[in-house]
């Protein structure tokens, strides 16, 4: 097997006797050397003593050979042999490596360096694809999180990073790396995301007096949660005579209903009073939401609530806020009008003009009835 010696600046080449303050510094140095030369690095054997690494090898990623598996062929449900894909050969027995040894003063010294390789090097145009030097940076993670929060997928997030950094080679990772990171992140958060959400509310409470309550079921799963910070409660104290409840929002991943509480200030602008997440639209769920809302607002019920048409919500409002006037949202009424009038009137522009004049042009109930 032929071997070749990389050509590079002598200042970045490892030499026996070089010392480093930590193993992390060694890894950073050798990966920088490997990137300049054009090969990928993996960590080899370790030797520890009292939980401290005293010897470690850094190898070429093409070191050694993969063990061939001679298992029985996999069969599908019909008893037929499954089609398998041959894995690409990525190792060729390359012996390039450095061995680090811990000294008495706690530093690490290069005790062995094998420079020759038995494979071709990556060209400069593809050096950014070397696996050991790829990393999903904090900026890439932040961009990915922001994009997914606005329903932008990982592929488009990667394209945004490419444009922002000035090219694929400056992103620091590949699209597949970003996809794998997102998959791992979702797997990590899958069984603990509700607890992370509650923990985040607790942390915010130390900075901003946030009111929140939540309910867990017998499986310790989050079923109800309500929160309102100090600014929300101040808004309600100033403008809370009228409150709009809207339960038409739903979350995709958890199939929970998002329930914002909003109102209008003296500039006719929207103000936020708080929000809830609930698992269903049963009367008991709505009752819990309204009871918790009143608790957050020191028991002060609004004079008027505007909601979409929902019988469970109507019943809960009557029981929890009996002195509050309940009205239906005009937007929902006008939207349902199209469904109720039938096909002929849906295409009649004169009908829409007349009904809009009645609804939006009437000053009082008597005028509306007259029209």
Automatic annotation (TrEMBL):
This is Protein FAR1-RELATED SEQUENCE. Residues 28-122 form the FAR1 domain. InterPro entries: FAR1_DNA_bnd_dom, MULE_transposase_dom. Residues 243-335 form the MULE transposase domain. It comes from Hordeum vulgare subsp. vulgare (Domesticated barley). Pfam families: FAR1 (PF03101), MULE (PF10551). Signal peptide: none annotated.
């Amino acid at each position: 097997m032929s071997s070749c010696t990389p050509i590079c600046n002598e200042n970045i080449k490892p030499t026996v006797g070089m010392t480093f303050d930590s193993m992390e510094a060694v890894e950073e140095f050798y990966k920088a050397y490997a990137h300049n030369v054009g090969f990928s690095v993996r960590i080899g054997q370790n030797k520890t003593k009292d939980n401290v690494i005293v010897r470690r090898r850094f190898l070429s990623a093409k070191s050694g050979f993969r063990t061939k598996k001679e298992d029985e062929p996999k069969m599908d449900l019909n008893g037929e042999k499954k089609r398998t894909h041959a894995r690409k050969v990525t190792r060729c027995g390359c012996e390039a490596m450095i061995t680090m040894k811990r000294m008495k003063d706690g530093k690490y010294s290069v005790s062995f360096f094998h420079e020759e390789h038995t494979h071709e090097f990556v060209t400069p145009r593809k050096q950014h694809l070397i696996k050991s030097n790829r990393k999903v940076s904090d900026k890439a993670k932040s961009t990915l999180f922001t994009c997914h929060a606005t329903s932008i997928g990982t592929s488009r997030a990667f394209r945004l990073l490419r444009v922002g950094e000035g090219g694929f080679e400056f992103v620091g990772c590949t699209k597949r790396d970003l996809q794998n990171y997102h998959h791992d992140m979702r797997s990590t958060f899958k069984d603990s995301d509700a607890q992370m959400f509650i923990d985040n509310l607790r942390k915010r409470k130390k900075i901003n007096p946030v009111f929140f309550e939540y309910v867990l079921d017998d499986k310790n799963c989050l079923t109800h949660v309500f929160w309102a910070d100090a600014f929300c409660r101040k808004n309600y104290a100033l403008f809370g005579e009228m409150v709009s409840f809207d339960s038409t929002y739903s979350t995709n991943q958890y199939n929970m209903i998002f329930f914002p509480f909003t109102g209008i200030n003296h500039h006719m602008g929207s103000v936020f009073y708080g929000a809830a997440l609930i698992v269903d639209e049963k009367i008991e769920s709505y009752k819990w939401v309204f009871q918790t809302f009143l608790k957050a607002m020191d028991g002060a019920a609004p004079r008027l609530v505007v909601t979409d048409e929902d019988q469970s919500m109507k019943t809960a409002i009557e029981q929890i806020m009996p002195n509050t006037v309940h009205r239906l949202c005009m937007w929902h009424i006008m939207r349902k009008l199209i469904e109720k009038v039938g096909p002929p009137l849906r295409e009649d522009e004169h009908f829409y003009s007349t009904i809009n004049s009645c609804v939006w042009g009437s000053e009082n109930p008597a005028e509306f009835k007259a029209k």
